[in-house]
Amino acid sequence: MERDLVLTEEDFARIRQLIYQRAGIVLAEHKREMVYSRLAKRLRHHGLTRFSDYLARLERQPDAREWEAFTNALTTNLTAFFRESHHFPLLAEHIRGRTGPIRVWSAAASTGEEPYSIAMTLSEVLGSRAGDAKVVATDIDTEALAKAEAGVYPLEQVHKLEAERMRRFFQRGTGRQAGLARVVPELRSMVEFSSQNLLAPGWQVNGPFDAIFCRNVMIYFDKTTQARILERFAPLLKPDGLMFAGHSENFSYITRTLRLRGQTVYALAATQASTSASGHGSTPAR
User: Fold this and answer.
1) Which positions of the chain have pLDDT values less than 70?
2) CA separation for the pair 54, 170 (Å, rounded)
3) Are 207 and 238 a contacting pair, CB within 8 Å?
4) Nearest 5°: CA angle at 18, between 253 and 57?
5) pLDDT for 43-79, tens place per residue?
6) Of the residues 139, 141, 182, 210, which is catalytic?
7) Which H or E run contains 59?
8) What are phi and psi of 113, to 5 degrees?
9) Which residues contact 175 (CB under 8 A, 6 or more apart)?
């Protein structure tokens, strides 16, 4: 296939190394076509024709905003409202009857469908107490987060929800906004969005959390990185807190701090839970 941009084997190897160092993402060999198509837009934006020139520009400026665009381009955002639906009744049961503030962390929030699904679940369970609940929603992809914060979705996507949820939690657009739906202000106010790289040495989130959702993102990390992140999740959970993983993720043989409690749902191991219980107040991220 004729291409207007030059991507060599050396360039591809450098890209794989840089995205691993920056975001922990492991790019397989067969992702070359994806890399070309996604980063080609960035090269054309800068008027470049060789990937080597683009990469050299990045490496000369370690703090440049272009790194954000580079990372956003290579991040995959596949999500939907109530994706892996069996998790949400489990969350509802976990939260039901609890007193005090409720906090849930959506650690790979993408374009917002997951944190809003969590917020809908909390609102349905807590009723008038929903104001005491907070969903902390983070992601490395700043473009995806901007869409999440806007809370506006195509109507056909929202139509997949139950009619009662559509009526209660979304406003149908009119005029220029026809064909779109926006989350209602009450739901939006329950969710707090911020950018967070799970590989960063310090996380800008504080526990303790009643639940952490980190679904379908660990598959992009190697086992060492997965283990390191799971070890950092543990002290941010309440002693009886739950961690929800993706359908293709299994951490039973990666960490001893979490034990499998059900289908892709983990709880703190006994020793870790007792350590967490002896703590005071919120646990700072480390």
Assistant:
1) 1-2, 270-286
2) 42
3) yes
4) 170
5) 999 999 999 999 999 999 887 889 988 988 888 777 8
6) 139
7) helix 51-60
8) -60, -40
9) none
- Relative to beta strand 237-244, strand 152-154 is unpaired
Task: Give dist(CA 15, CA 63) in Å, integer.
Answer: 17
Verdict on whether the full-model pTM lies above 0.70: yes
170-172, strands of its sheet edge to edge = 152-154, 180-183, 170-172
Which residues have CB under 8 Å from 248's CB, separation 6+? 216, 219
Catalytic site residue 228?
no
| Active-site pick, 14, 32, 38, 172 | 38
* φ, ψ of residue 201 in degrees (nearest 5): -65, -25
Per-residue CA distances from 257 to 151, 246, 274 (Å)? 35, 18, 11
The length of the chain in residues reads 286
Reduced to 3 states, what is the DSSP secondary structure of residue 266? strand
Give, in degrees to the nearest 5, the angle at Cα 42 between 41 and 45: 85
State how far the Cα of 14 lies from the Cα of 28, in Å rounded to an integer. Answer: 13
* Residue 205 in tokens: 């989130």
d(CA 253, CA 230): 12
Q: Is 139 a catalytic residue?
A: yes
